[in-house]
């Protein structure tokens, strides 16, 4: 019974790692589709999101089944409950990557942005991809130095987000309305993606250290529409 | 033991209802603060969000404690797991109301938008408030006709969201960059708020009917930056 239980917990961890890999691939492809105006790649991200959703359902059912049959306590219980939370977060990250891909697809053969703002959005896409890869690596290794790096990288991503606002507010940058809408939402999607990476990093830290103080949902964003708010 | 368990499950339900009430109040006040450029009201929403976050922590701890001590199965297990999911959703809705309040505060003594677009945003704020009140009522009564109304109301909210984009894309509407940013993000916050109401309605339906088919996370948004996408 216990052996099966351990095996199932391991399977749960593997499924979460697989989800995080799919999410990292999705955001990487979405960012590339956006940068290169690559329609086929954007379509791929949109189609492949269903795999992530499917895995979320699998993980959730697995967690509920584990709770019902194995009635875990203490650390094992935390692993299962945290697994439920993480699958929801990863599914949402997949959605955000899909949203980015939608914009790339919608503007094809043009790019959604151009010039300096495009460069900034590309940087945001790369930063989000790096963070997602760190999440995969953290979930595989449980090396908490990677959790710390995710927090630092998120500060960088937030900084880029603020720079996008600064550029957009500068009227010297000629932007039509559709470009403005796209840029603001793309920056928001990528910034939220980063927040979710931080949430995963904190939950993983909590599983490793048992210290809840840094793992609960902290305010990750201040004034979302005011780039000067911090 | 069972009597205590039932009592605790009831307490869990009461806490979730209380969270939903706080969230409904938050979005109502935030929408009013935005419409009337009411700084004090905006500040209230921002301050009071901590109560919602606090209740989320309480609910989560309660759920984990229930799982550990009572080891529920079948329906009771679903109630507890769903409670965990719902508290996360409600907490996020509180954040979205807070974001709306941030914009109201940031633009005071001006309003964030004016003219027709302001009217549309006010309609969105009212629609979101109505939906949040229906969520409270649904969670209290378990009357599934209210779940159906939430779905219908969300279609209306999405329609208003698309109208905002249409107006913003029309260059005849004079809007400066800050207004554009505010409008796009406010519309997005309120539209997401509605999605979360639908998610809560589906989870509640699932608890009542046991039918999962309509309760899992369905794609609630299509192309988030293209108002013509559906």
Describe the 3D structure.
- Two copies of one chain form a homodimer.
- Chain A is mainly alpha-helical.
- Chain A has one domain (about 1-215): Up-down Bundle (Methane Monooxygenase Hydroxylase, Chain G, domain 1).
- Helices cover about 80% and strands about 0% of the residues of chain A.
- The first copy, chain A, contains six helices and no strands.
- Chain A has helices at about 1-35, 40-70, 75-105, 115-140, 145-170, 175-210.
- In chain A, helix 4 packs antiparallel against helix 5 (about 145-170) and helix 4 packs parallel to helix 6.
- The longest helix of chain A has about 35 residues, at about 1-35.
- Residues about 215-220 of chain A have low confidence and may be disordered.
- Chains A, B: One of its GO terms (cellular component) is cytoplasm.
- Chains A, B: This is Phosphate-specific transport system accessory protein PhoU.
- Chains A, B: Homodimer.
Structural descriptors:
Methane Monooxygenase Hydroxylase, Chain G, domain 1, mainly alpha, 0% strand, 6 helices, 230 residues, elongated, homodimer
Give a brief description.
Two copies of one chain form a homodimer. Chain A is mostly helical. Helices cover 81% and strands 0% of the residues of chain A.
Write the layout of secondary structure elements.
2 copies of one chain form a homodimer.
Chain A (H helix, E strand, L loop, with lengths): L1 H35 L2 H32 L3 H34 L7 H27 L2 H26 L7 H33 L21
Helix pairs in contact in A: 1-2, 1-3, 1-4, 2-3, 3-6, 4-5, 4-6, 5-6
